[in-house]
Amino acid sequence: MRTMIAYCGLDCGQCDAYRATIGDDQTLREKTAKAWSEMNHAEILPEHINCEGCRTDGIKFVYCESMCPIRRCALSKGMTTCGDCAELETCEKVRPVLDNVPGTRENLRG
After folding, report:
1. What pTM was computed for the model?
2. 38-77 pLDDT, tens per residue?
3. Is residue 2 part of a domain?
4. Which domain holds residue 65?
C-alpha cells in the first residue's frame, strides 16, 4: 500500500496541506487555512498548514498528529491502516470518512 494513504483511507497526496508543504506554496496555505477555518468553525492560520502525510515521518497538521481519533486508534492497535482492522466496516470512528469520501474503501483495500 502506498504510504500516502492515510490510516482512514484518505489520499494525503491530494490534501491541500500536503501540497502546500511540498510545494512551499504560501498562497495555497492561506486559501486552505481560510477554508478549513470556516469548515471547522475554528481559527486555523496559514502557518498551521504544514503536513507531510499522517503515516510518514515528518511534520503533520496538528489535528492529524495529535487529535485524529482514527490515527490514534490505528497506532494503538499497531495497524498500518484501518484496512488491516477486522472492525473496519463497523467502526464508528472511520465510518464518516468511508461513507462520505469516494475511494477511501478502495484505498484501504490497496
Report:
1. 0.88
2. 999 999 999 999 999 999 999 999 999 999 999 999 999 9
3. no
4. 12-109
Alpha carbons 37 and 39: distance in angstroms, whole number: 6
Query: What total of structural domains would you count in the chain?
Result: 1
Query: Measuring CA to CA, how many Å separate 61 from each of 36, 44, 66, 68, 105?
Result: 12, 10, 9, 10, 23
Determine, yes or no, domain membership for 93: yes
Q: What is the pLDDT of residues 51-61, one digit of tens each?
A: 999 999 999 99
Question: What does the chain come to in residues?
Answer: 110
Q: Say how far apart CA 78 and CA 95 lie, in whole Å.
A: 19
Single-letter amino acid, residue 74: A
DSSP 6: -
Where residue 110 falls among pLDDT bands split at 50, 70, 90?
confident
